[in-house]
Amino acid sequence: INAEYMGTLSECLFFFRFLTSSTMGKKLSKEQMQDFKDASKGKFDEKEIKHMYKLFHKSAPSGRMGKKEFKKYIEELAIFKKVDQTENYDQLFRGYDRDRDGTITFKEYLQYHLGIVFSTDELFDIVWSMYDEDGNGFITRDELVEVVTNSTRWMGDCDVDHKEVQELIHAEVDKIVSFVDVNKDNQISKEELHAAQEKHPEILEKLKNLA
After folding, report:
1. Residue 10 and residue 116: Cα distance in Å, rounded?
2. Are 113 and 122 in contact (CB under 8 A)?
3. CB neighbours of 36 closer than 8 A, spacing ≥ 6?
4. Which of 25, 12, 31, 174 is nearest to 77 (CA)?
């Protein structure tokens, strides 16, 4: 299993900005717009920010997106081929909700897309949050397997219950752990991932694409 075969979530989410939007949303003040432009480091223009703001508030009228609203948002984007009614897309939610308070604000939403689309500094924390399920500061082999298995299932190109697919997933995880886990304790620390991505920035792109 590789990023080219699975497709990438980042590519799918990038195109959401070009979806037509007929949603009604609260108007942004000049101060809010400037705040959001600063938060996105000037990568998104006013038209794009307004569009994302409307799209966000369509699913989260209160201005905070919980897990229920997030599930609705993801499914309405229709970026995944296989949709399970019981799926909550927890790993994706963690990528947006990096402070882990259980809700996503528009600024968090904006910064997620900033990192995913433009591979800015935010990408490290986004990727880390997606994989570190229990928030203990380490990414275990099991967490890697779970994230890659989930994303493979959502893309719908492979049957994750098939033995060969499971073997491919585990082989991919083994390569990542072998490459990043310097002290060989069978888990990845933030320091190890930082060191790896400084020498090889493509490791974050790989982890992003596999999630």
Report:
1. 6
2. no
3. 28, 44, 49, 53, 106, 107, 110
4. 12
Residue 211 and residue 131 in contact, taking contact as beta carbons nearer than 8 Å: yes
What's the CA gap between 144 and 170, in Å, rounded? 9
CA 203 and chain centroid, separation: 15
Token pair listed for 134: 């229990």
Contact 125, 131 (CB under 8 A): no
> Nearest CA to 101 among 63, 138, 65?
65
CA 205-207-209 angle, to 5 degrees, is 70
Residues 28-66: tens digit of each pLDDT: 999 999 999 999 999 999 999 999 999 999 999 999 999
CA-CA distance, 103 to 60, in Å (whole number)? 10
Q: Is 25 helix (H, G, I), strand (E, B) or coil?
A: coil
98-128 tens-digit pLDDT = 999 999 999 999 999 999 999 999 999 999 9
Under 8 Å between Cβ of 80 and 156: yes
